[in-house]
Amino acid sequence: MLGYPQYQVTLPDMTEQEELSAEYKVQVLSARLHPMQVMRREISRDGVMRSSEIMSLFPGTKVRTAGYVVCRQAPVTAKGHVFLTLEDEEGLLNIVLKPHIYQKYRYLVRTAPLIVVEGCLRRGRAL
């Protein structure tokens, strides 16, 4: 029996981002990494804070944060306000978008799985 030559092909290791992307394509989730963990080094340089960091700030502080959109709500009774829940690698944040902000970024708010938001920190009654 004649044998065929065997070749060992060496592929480069996947980056964390490539691994995460592959896991989401196959499983629609990753049990190992949160999407924000992969991006944290880059976005922290731009002043994007973790949910845990924001929790220690005083109301009225201007903040930038980012996360995976886990919930979008636009109740008819909210007078045009839209509510988002963002999840980062350390917790959840509730975001309130005023009507003019929602209209300006409507497409992104409705379609982007991960977003960066900037605004003023409020506690309690948001509207």
Total number of helical segments? 5
Give the % helix.
25-40%
The top-level CATH class is: Mainly Beta
Number of strands: 4
Strand order of the largest sheet: 3-2-1-4
Radius of gyration: 20 Å
Alpha carbon gap, first and last residue: 79 Å
Specify the overall morphology. Answer: elongated
The main sheet comes to: 4 strands, antiparallel
Poorly predicted residue ranges: none
Please name the CATH architecture.
Answer: Beta Barrel
SSE-based structural type: alpha+beta
In CATH, the homologous superfamily goes by the name: Nucleic acid-binding proteins
The percent range for strand residues is 25-35%
Which secondary structure elements does this structure contain, and how are they paired or packed?
Elements lengths: L15 H12 L7 H10 L6 H4 L7 E12 L8 E7 L2 E7 L1 H6 L1 H6 L2 E7 L7
Antiparallel strand pairs: 1-2, 1-4, 2-3
What can you tell me about this protein's structure?
The protein has 127 residues and is an alpha+beta fold. Helix content is 30%, strand content 26%. It has helices spanning 16-27, 35-44, 51-54, 99-104, 106-111, and strands spanning 62-73, 82-88, 91-97, 114-120. The longest helix has 12 residues, at 16-27. The protein is elongated and about 75 Å long.
Feature tags:
127 residues, alpha+beta, OB fold (Dihydrolipoamide Acetyltransferase, E2P), 4-stranded antiparallel sheet, 26% strand, elongated
